[in-house]
Amino acid sequence: MKKRGLGTTCIQGGYTPKKGEARVLPVYQSTTFKYDTSEQMARLFDLEDSGYFYSRLQNPTCDAVAAKICELEGGVGAILTSSGQAASFLAIFNLCGAGDHIVSSAAIYGGTSNLFTVTMKKLGIEVTLVDPDASKEELRAAFRPNTKALFAETLSNPSMAVLDFEKFAAVAHEQGVPLVVDNTFATPINCRPFEWGADIVTHSTTKYMDGHAMAVGGCIVDSGNFDWMAHKEKFPGLTTPDDSYHGLVYAENFGKMAYIMKATAQLMRDLGTCQSPQNAFLLNVGLETLHLRMARHCENALKAARFLSENPHVAWVNYPGLEGDRYYERAQKYMPNGACGVIAFGLKGGREQSIAFMDKLELGAIVTHVADARTSVLHPASHTHRQLNDEQLLEAGVRPDLIRLSVGIEDAEDIIADLKQAIDHVYGSALSD
Ligand SMILES: *Cc1c(COP(=O)(O)O)cnc(C)c1O
């Protein structure tokens, strides 16, 4: 079949009913799957046959949704996880263990930053954070002989830096490690990291993919492009026998599917961070309109960013779709159809004004969430990035006055009117007209 468009995949990808079957992807609300003989089941446990046996490992509803996301990203295999955090953890832990090291952009989501710098450290995995705009030399300098991955976000949450894919991919590959990219904010509708050299993509599906703030979830997609056997020594987990499967070698047995097979058969089996079929069903409903929503998010966000950048009380605006933005050219290159609906900005006067403004919003709500249909705001320094000190905040690109505005898909005029009335409240209306 001819390669179909992303909109068609959003709606029809991952599930093709046969004669007389449900038109809509069913929820397989079942932990278990039936077999006729003990031998049939034994073969599944040895990974000699593929089939469902227990929903912690695989479930038909989850698999269909993973297949849809896989097709959207242009990968060879994908797995849903219980959350974006689980996706980030499994994506990295599938490549390394105690005594290993990773390099990550410092401009990443607060939760990922905690995971890498605090929790993974306890597991014996070290991280070196690098400036997202570091030169090739600076990036190279962060690598060690035991480095197993380079990690970054397509659009950083919440600083809105745009990843220089070609630079990061070139250094990762020259150092013999995969580039792992969190593509949550751009979604495959606006950017497909595999086309720019990324090897593995992660998502918090909780955000735009779900789009309605209904279900926490995550996903890992593999491009199938990284040659594990060419770096046999570096990735023993994929290239040497797995004792928990009678000495099976993932890269030999499964070829391009090795990474996702290992994540499923070994990590999901042992760590159990699977997505529930009910959440996968809701995620799938969200995915059916992802292409329509992303276009509207971008259209509304550009209007809101323009309004903010022209308002005399606004100190600064970061939105890669805005002409003159530091990342405008890079965004045009990697995501010409638009970035996403998230804007970072600060008000004159700093932190106190930013907080007062948020309290005055009527349409926009203060929520620990981002990237759904409803306009929302958050103050990362007080909320998601609260664990970071001021120096770490700046390193992550998060100024203390930064307001993260997640522009929804309501009418743009109403969103802008709400921003305006809240700014007027903070500064007195005469000034902002
Ligand atoms: C929210 C988020 C995560 C974590 O996802 P959860 O689904 O909340 O666990 C990871 N990366 C980015 C970019 C996010 O915005």
Task: Kindly describe this structure.
The model has no long low-confidence stretch (mean pLDDT about 95). The relative contact order is 0.13. The strands form two sheets. The protein has a seven-stranded mixed sheet with strand order 1-7-6-5-4-2-3, with helices on both faces. A five-stranded mixed sheet has the order 8-9-12-11-10, with helices on one face. It contains 18 helices and twelve strands. With about 425 residues, it is an alpha/beta fold. It has helices at about 5-10, 40-45, 60-75, 85-95, 110-120, 135-140, 165-175, 185-190, 235-240, 250-255, 260-270, 275-285, 290-310, 330-335, 350-360, 390-395, 410-425, 430, and strands at about 75-80, 100-105, 125-130, 145-155, 180, 200-205, 220, 315-320, 340-345, 365, 375-380, 405. Helix 8 (about 185-190) links the parallel strand 5 (about 180) and strand 6. Helix 13 packs parallel to helix 17 (about 410-425). The N and C termini lie far apart (about 55 Å). Pyridoxal-5'-phosphate (PLP) binds near residues 88, 109, 112, 216 and 218. Pyridoxal-5'-phosphate binds near residues 111, 153, 182 and 207.
Keywords:
alpha/beta; 433 residues; 18 helices; single chain; binds pyridoxal-5'-phosphate; 7-stranded mixed β-sheet; globular; 5-stranded mixed β-sheet; 39% helix
